Amino acid sequence: MRLLNAKTFTRADFNNEGTVPDYAILSHTWGDDEVTFRDLAELSREQLVSKRAWEKVKKCCAKAMEWDLEWVWIDTCCIDQSSSAELSEAINSMYQWYRKSAVCYAYLSGVDSVEEDFLSDRVIDQGHSSFDKARWFTRGWCLQELLAPRNMQFYNMHWEYIGSKNSLKERISTITHIDEDGLFIPDLSVLSVAERMSWAAHRQTTREEDIAYCLLGIFNINMPLLYGEGQTRAFGRLQEEIMKRTEDHSILAWSGKGADFRNDMVGFLAPHPSAFS
């Protein structure tokens, strides 16, 4: 696992699990000008500061230091995505990385303010708040990032505190259609396969295979990533791995089409041409 020092913005590898320090982790949606792994290695500080996403990195690190945490993990600049082996290892490990974090900061870039009526029944029922409409709630990768952390704090685009997963659980449950208890269950395997699969039904990913890969941690599955295999094959491999590990065949019953489940899901979980996470 590679972490970013919150004070110096340098990175360090922690290859043995017992040596990993306490760290904060960021959950966010990607934009067009993210700070990448290569950027941190090759760009000058002046060039980094010119990137729109640098402020997000800087504020995440500052927030970590407020929590007395020296290290942070940010997917955009802690994973060398030019290495297929490293990317595969990271995606297969990501659920546990979020799970083991001291705190997860959910940064909602589309939420400008915290409305006065934010917690009113009227807003909850009608879904008119910018929080309810946040793109973060539509992304495939953000599903595991919502479920895995024990301690999750939500911030708006100005890094103003909105609330915790616990304090906002009713609101989050309404938005995501995930039962409040499901937001905090340590072992998701106690829930049916169909229920867990349904959580991703209206989420989107940029790369078509990722709609399957983003569910690996939710089903405690490790499998190789084969970008280019297409959504149908990726989802089929995921289904096969799930069937090997459980006698719960609700994965077939959920679509109501038995053996046609895979094609049904592929159509239902069609990818959307927007950001990676």
Number of helices: 13
Whole-number tally of structural domains:
2
Specify the structural class: alpha/beta
Number of strand elements: 7
Strand order of the largest sheet: 2-1-4-3-5-6-7
Q: What proportion of the residues form beta strands (DSSP E)?
A: 5-15%
Description of the molecule:
InterPro entries: DUF8212, HET. Residues 23-118 form the Heterokaryon incompatibility domain. This is HET-domain-containing protein. Residues 233-256 form the DUF8212 domain. By secondary structure, the protein is α/β, with parallel strands linked by helices. The protein folds into 2 domains: 1-186, no CATH class; 189-276, no CATH class. It contains 13 helices and 7 strands. The chain has a 7-stranded mixed β-sheet with strand order 2-1-4-3-5-6-7. The longest helix has 16 residues, at 84-99. The protein is globular. The chain starts with a strand and ends in a 9-residue tail after the last helix. Mean pLDDT is 87; it is low at 254-277.
Fill in the keyword field for this structure.
single chain; 277 residues; alpha/beta; 2 domains; 7-stranded mixed β-sheet; 13 helices; 7 strands; globular
The gist of it:
Pfam families: DUF8212, HET. With 277 residues, the chain is of the alpha/beta class. The chain has helices spanning 37-42, 45-49, 54-66, 75-78, 84-99, 121-126, 140-147, 169-176, 193-198, 210-213, 231-245, 250-253, 261-268; strands at 2-5, 11-13, 23-27, 71-73, 103-107, 152-155, 161-164.
